[in-house]
Amino acid sequence: MNQTSLDPAYSGEHNLLAAYQADSAFFFASPCHTLLAEGIQQVITDTDPSAAIAAALASQPDPAQAVVVGAIPFMPEQQPWLFVPRRVRRADALKQEQRSALRQPLQADCQLTPQPAPAAYCQGVSDALARIGSGALDKVVLSRTLELSAQQAIDQRQLLLNLASQNQHGYTFAVQLSADDAPRRALMGASPELLLARYGRQVITNPLAGSAARSPDSTEDRRRADALLESGKDLYEHKLVIDAVVEALAPYCRNLQVPAGPSLVSTATMWHLSTRISGELIDPTVGSFELARALHPTPAVCGFPADPARKLIREIEPFDRGFFTGMVGWCDGNGDGEWAVTIRCAEISERTLRLFAGAGIVTGSLPESELAETAAKFRTMLRAMGLADLAEAA
After folding, report:
1. What is the separation of C-alpha 217 from the centre of its chain, rounded to a whole number of angstroms?
2. How far is CA 35 from CA 14, 19, 21, 87, 150, in A?
3. Domain ranges within the chain, ordered by starting residue
4. Neighbouring-strand partners of residue 270
5. Could you give the angle at the alpha carbon of 14 between the alpha carbons of 12 and 18, nearest 5°?
6. Which pLDDT score, from 0 to 100, does residue 2 have?
7. Could you confirm whether 230 is annotated as catalytic?
8. Which of 140, 144, 227, 280 matches a 20 to 30 Å C-alpha distance to 12?
9. Cβ(177)–Cβ(185) below 8 Å
10. Is 173 within 8 Å of 187 (Cβ atoms)?
11. Where is the Chorismate-utilising enzyme C-terminal domain (predicted)?
């Protein structure tokens, strides 16, 4: 049986972003550290994979240093893509100069196909608002996709480098979604949202809900940020998420620290309402994956309550989300790990990118405004491709 090998050096001098290749199995960069995994030793596809993860980690020669990496889809009945890699390399967090030095122009002649069409998306928002008005649920997140078809093969390595260069404070990831001998298909993104991290007994989650597009004009950009902080609709949407997250974590944690109100965080394209919640793990045997599964999906990507929101998503969205609004990350034999919400992402095959973006629908939402929010969220991937001008056509 093959055994996972670990890079014996753990050093901030290692730029694992530069070491990433298009056939690398997994890459994950967080504000704390970087992980690069190569090769696939053992695949875990159980729809309830907790026991299989524990068994896979325990079977390694040094279970405490072993790692499982991968992604979980949005819908609970769908198979995850988790695996034990053949080799794992770790380093400290990327420095901005490491990120910026690797950015290069990447632009293709692409044909863009939205699904659903903008008018159909707006109709879906109207239908959801009617359902919310009837009392069936409080919130639902509706998403749409853009399929970009290029004339030439997409440079997956350069796309990841570009994503990392514009995502200093978030979670940049790349996951090969096929075994070594299968046609290459990847999930890549630059998520701003931490679903859950566990380091020893410390547990951290940082939900984002309530958004506004950035403006290139500094005065207008500040006005939008201030308006978001005072928006009754967005504050209500955010509170739904925070209340649900706190309720889910309470059985696992003591001393939960929950700020009285949200703060603002920004990416290159968006402002978000943010609340960082931390606590101390009661039972030290509970690992990061179990904790993340207890949270997933939060109302930030699904809605509230979750079951009627998920049902409405199935009715209205004319596509399969796959791993979009799932979770992506890693866990180790100590129980530590980091899991980001799989947003600002795309699934990539040789000459095709499928981008995803969603918006939270609550009482007071306006269909055209939610459409504009999804278009703004597409800009993360489009900018990395050198196609930011296509956002307005989305």
Report:
1. 28
2. 10, 11, 13, 11, 30
3. 5-393
4. 213
5. 130
6. 42
7. no
8. 280
9. yes
10. yes
11. 119-377
Q: Is 139 a catalytic residue?
A: yes
Query: Exposed, middle or buried by CB within 10 Å (0-12, 13-18, 19+), for 256?
Result: middle
How many angstroms separate the CA atoms of 281 and 278, rounded? 10
CB atoms under 10 Å from CB of 13, counted, come to 7
Query: Does the pTM exceed 0.90?
Result: yes
Query: Which parts of the chain fold into alpha helices (H)?
Result: 16-19, 50-58, 96-101, 118-133, 156-165, 218-230, 232-249, 288-295, 306-316, 367-385
Count of CB atoms within 10 A of residue 314's CB? 11
Query: Can you tell me whether residue 221 is helix, strand or coil?
Result: helix
Active-site annotation holder among 139, 237, 347, 373: 139
At a CB cut-off of 8 Å and minimum separation 6, what does 20 contact? 27, 36, 157, 160, 161, 174
Say how far apart CA 275 and CA 261 lie, in whole Å: 7
- Residues 141 and 314 sit within 8 Å (Cβ to Cβ): no
CA-closest candidate to residue 171, choices 73, 71, 260, 264: 71
Using an 8 Å Cβ cutoff, are 72 and 15 in contact?
Answer: no
Q: What's the rounded Cα separation, in Å, for the pair 253 and 9?
A: 33
| Residue 3: per-residue pLDDT | 45
Which residue reads 């919400």 in tokens? 341
Three-state SS for 338? strand
User: Which pLDDT belongs to residue 166?
Assistant: 85
In CATH, which superfamily holds the domain spanning 5-393?
Anthranilate synthase (3.60.120.10)
Query: Residue 65 is inside which H or E element, if any?
Result: none
User: Residues 6 or more apart from 146 whose CB is under 8 A from it?
Assistant: 112, 113, 114, 115, 354, 355, 357, 378, 394
Distance CA 81, CA 375 (A): 28
| Residue 393 confidence (pLDDT) | 62
Positions in the chain short of pLDDT 50: 1-13
DSSP-derived letter for residue 14 is -
Tell me which amino acid residue 32 is.
C
> Which amino acid, residue 365?
S
pLDDT at 183: 65
Which is catalytic among the residues 38, 147, 193, 247? 193
The C-alpha atoms of residue 371 and residue 367 are separated, in whole angstroms, by: 6
pLDDT digits (tens, 9 = 90+) for 296-317: 999 999 999 999 999 999 999 9
- The span from the CA of 355 to the CA of 93, in Å, is 27
Q: How high is the pLDDT of residue 6?
A: 42
